[in-house]
Amino acid sequence: MTDVLRLTAEETYASELEALLEDSGPRPTGWRLTPKAVLTYLLGGQAPGGAQVSPKYVGARRLMETAVATLATDRALLLMGVPGTAKSWVSEHLAAAISGDSTLLIQCTAGTDETQVRYGWNYAQLLAHGPSEEALVATPLMRAMREGALCRMEEFTRLGSDVQDTMITVLSEKVLPVPELGMALPARRGFNVIATANNRDKGVNELSSALKRRFNVVVLPLPASLDEEVGIVSRRVRELATGLDLPVPRGVEEQIKAVLTVFRELRSGATEDNKVTLKTPSGTLSTAEAIGTLVGGLSHAAWFADGQLGAEQLAASMVGAIVKDPVQDKAVLEEYLETVLKKRNAYSQYYGALNDAL
Q: What is the value of pTM for the model shown?
């Protein structure tokens, strides 16, 4: 038992990563695991010694094959998709499996400047002794280049276009210029960049054509079927509940399926049988939001409902996920309740609880 709120991927799955080290196949310079072992780690399977490896990503195998193969070349990887398609999750596990360190992370925002991406300065040393290598403050990108590891850049398109373009030299020449010292830091073998980008959010900065050419883009889709999404959410909810010491009651899959049915129908703009066309809310109602809704419901159930999980414990979190715009989204949900849920006997509790929560 640990008092750390969230362990890194390499800490959580240390035993699986250790078992996969037994794969004696060829591996790119600087990689801890072979590409095949990395794929097994991501998709699940059996390690060479017989140990079972749990799946980290549920989806098309070819997408993960493309991602792993890209990182074995000199091209960077850009994972794109709407929120909740496991971009950050895949990025973290790729870094854990390939480099053994998923913490070399830059969280990109509109306020991120060049010093947070390339390098900074220890100003006390700079004033006392002038520019020197000792005065440099290494960013995760600089550390990854020095160590021959993977650097993760989350929400890459939130960076200003001028800061984005500072990456062109790094990605094409594999060096980090430090003009103040008249030098350039070369990247060691094994270095690469995994960037993620949300193609749904407003206000992001388009990548320049010169920068796009340095990336291989892999688009991660939302789960294709309800059963696939139920499996993903069920596994993640149980993992998060364990970490938070929340009991998972029997029959939780039934509630997961109910929540996901509502989310998927509102997200797609049609009922599962395609007989009724629906208005869609402004939010994405992604898999990640469904997971958050279920974990919130489990917490409510554990502390205020004697561990009983049902529509009453989930309704407030569901409304919070659906109603981002208090006028437009509220009207969308009200219409859905009256035209769809009201007519489904199996959802009568959700109809009443959601109406009460609105």
A: 0.88
